[in-house]
Design a protein that fits this description.
The complex is a heterodimer of chains A (189) and B (400). With 189 residues, chain A is mostly helical. Among the domains of chain A are: 1-80, Four Helix Bundle (Hemerythrin (Met), subunit A), CATH 1.20.120.1200; 134-168. Chain A is built from 8 helices and no strands. In chain A, helix 1 (2-22) runs antiparallel to helix 2 (26-46) and helix 2 (26-46) runs antiparallel to helix 3. The N and C termini of chain A lie far apart (78 Å). In chain B, 67% of the residues lie in helices and 2% in strands. In chain B, strand 1 (115-118) and strand 2 form a beta hairpin. In chain B, helix 4 (89-107) packs parallel to helix 11. Classes of the chains: A mainly alpha (189), B mainly alpha (400).
Chain lengths: 189, 400
């Protein structure tokens, strides 16, 4: 049954990914991306990685793609795209890079050190000294890897503050919009 | 397949046909429970508000008008289903179901009873007990946003789009506050599983009401959760998604007939789910007194009493939501955003940290009150320092 589920959701993942590339409407692309992300979350579940699956849905499907959709809707680029390419050389470069990545993946798939031994799955999920998968992740994250974890948090805060500073760099404020129906201030005088 | 099972003993002896059938039956029962709750809740809401406004309310269909919602549902079912010409048809048709599906799936983790035994199989009275527990709620409310956004966008006109942008911005903002207020509980319970959380709020004596149930130990988180959950479910006084005098009707204005009814259903399912989660996290879930009083009646003890307590608490919380709906006027939009981002999120952070300090102090055997006081003072000091560093609005003008 695990195998059936794996192939089902692997097919959905790839189908969604193809949809992202091939759909003409950006909003449809974003929806296919959600399909891919949720399918990948199910694949994580099949690997007993419950926390990663939940985080995948909360962060990627629940926040990042929503942000994409906001941008698409508010910038008004939600019209079907034309096939004219602004960069002439884009297509051959993309094809050759894709071929290289495909070759790398195929090469790595044959190597044990990349895919890992298949015996690692499901060890100590029930019971074990530290309880469930999530508890063990938390324990490692807040003891062994506490320093990198905190540094990452600081990095994210710096990024947020930096983007706010960059976006509000100029001191000028936008002109207040005239209220509909009411004459502008100068006319009133 | 321990992956999907979590702690439910139903899966302890592998999965055979009986287990699958039981799962399907459980799904239908939980879905039915939720649907019936929505029907009753809408009637209950109209009746209570009518009482508060000195009216009679629905009283024609069925006893006390209880079947009014059903009649409305049947009417909506047979109304014409229109699709605007400018609509993006596949997305337009998909959106209501995304809303309803996410709302239903979020309810799956709510424990509404204890462990029962059917034939040779033991199981929990709850649809799923995943190890990620409460994170599942956050994931599903994250997916629920798509229903709102897509409905507004795919309708192909201005008002639904404005309504959906506003509603989804609100839901996303308050999701953060809900998640952070839940942290205040998780620090105390040490587990994410909803079953584990109610397990720690088991009833021992009347003292359990204040010492075991988490509403008092996590009172700050409780208050923040109630406010943030009210806002996240677009419930008055935060019902901006359908501010009719500003938006004509909100994100679902172009929907008619049963498609509109599904949005309506999803909205009330969310209210019930959030109330049920409040009961689970803070009010002990299905635990309550008299559990041991009738210990010699085995099945009453297992089947009736916990479900009775759960439903009683659920309807008490739901009465509170109706009371709020009847009493408070709608906020202004900027006040809503200020409340979410500048008050609730910070308060939830502070509460989670102080709770963490108290837990550590208790572990180490320090004086709990002294430690909590010191932690609070330190937090205020840091907050004051940061506030002193940030220029005020007037000073900012001078700098420029």
């Amino acid at each position: 049954m695990t195998v059936v589920l794996f192939f089902l959701f692997a097919a959905l993942t790839i189908g969604g990914a193809l949809g992202v590339v091939l759909a003409r409407n950006p909003v449809h692309c974003a929806l296919f991306l959600v399909l891919t992300l949720v399918s990948v979350a199910v694949l994580f579940l099949l690997q007993d990685a419950q926390l990663v699956a939940a985080v995948q849905i909360i962060v990627y499907a629940g926040a990042i793609v929503v942000l994409f959709l906001f941008v698409i809707m508010l910038l008004g680029v939600d019209r079907p795209d034309t096939l004219e390419e602004p960069l002439r050389f884009q297509r051959p470069v993309a094809f050759s890079l894709g071929a290289i990545v495909l070759a790398e993946v195929l090469f790595l798939a044959g190597q044990r050190w990349a895919t890992g031994a298949h015996t690692a799955r499901g060890v100590g999920i029930k019971g074990g000294p530290f309880g469930s998968n999530i508890e063990r992740v938390a324990r490692v994250l807040f003891t062994t890897f506490l320093w990198p974890f905190q540094i990452t948090a600081a990095l994210l805060v710096i990024a947020v503050v930096g983007s706010v500073v960059l976006a509000r760099r100029s001191g000028e404020r936008p002109e207040p919009l005239p209220i509909d129906g009411a004459p502008a201030e100068e006319d009133a005088r | 397949m321990a992956v999907f099972a979590g702690g439910d003993p139903l899966f302890d002896h592998g999965i055979d046909l009986t287990v699958v059938v039981m799962l399907i039956v459980k799904t239908f029962v939980v879905f039915g429970l939720l649907l019936v709750s929505v029907l009753l809740y809408i009637w209950f809401m109209r009746k209570v508000i009518a009482d508060m406004q000195n009216r009679i309310g629905p009283d024609k269909a069925g006893p006390f008008g209880m079947l009014q919602t059903l009649a409305d549902g049947v009417k909506l079912f047979f109304k014409e289903r229109t699709t605007p010409i400018a609509a993006d048809r596949p997305v337009y048709l998909l959106a209501p179901f995304v809303s309803a599906l996410a709302a239903f799936l979020a309810f799956a983790i709510v424990p509404f009873g204890g462990a029962v035994r059917i034939g040779s199989h033991a199981t929990f009275l709850q649809l799923a007990d995943p190890p990620v527990g409460i994170l599942w709620l956050l994931a599903m409310s994250g997916l629920g946003v798509y229903g709102v956004m897509l409905a507004g966008w795919s309708s192909g006109s201005k008002y639904p789009l404005l309504g959906s942008v506003r509603a989804s911005a609100q839901v996303l903002s308050y999701e953060a506050a809900v998640g952070l207020s839940v942290v205040g509980v998780l620090v105390l319970t040490n587990t994410l599983s909803t079953r584990g959380i109610v397990g720690q709020q088991a009833w021992h004596s009347w003292d359990s009401f204040v010492s075991q149930w988490l509403w008092l130990p996590a009172i700050g988180a409780f208050i923040i959760f109630l406010i943030a959950a009210t806002a996240e479910t677009n419930h008055p006084p935060f019902d901006f998604s359908e501010a009719e005098e500003e938006l004509a009707g909100g994100y679902h204005i172009e929907y008619s007939g049963i498609r509109f009814a599904i949005f309506y259903l999803a909205e009330f399912m969310n209210v019930i789910t959030m109330s049920a989660i409040a009961v689970t996290l803070f009010l002990g879930g299905p635990s309550g007194p008299w559990l041991t009083l009738v210990a010699h009646h085995g099945w009453v003890n297992v089947w009736i009493v916990p479900v009775f307590w759960f439903l009683l608490k659920l309807w008490a919380v739901l009465y509170g939501t109706v009371w709020i709906r009847a009493s408070l006027p709608r906020l202004r939009y900027d006040l809503l955003m200020n409340l979410g981002w500048k008050v609730l999120i910070e308060a939830a952070f502070l509460w989670a940290m102080v709770t963490g300090v108290i837990v550590v102090a208790r572990d180490r055997g320090w004086n709990v009150y002294l430690t909590a006081f010191a932690a609070g003072a330190a937090a205020l000091l840091v907050y004051g320092f940061l506030m002193a560093c940030v220029p005020r609005a007037g000073e900012l003008e001078e700098i420029r």
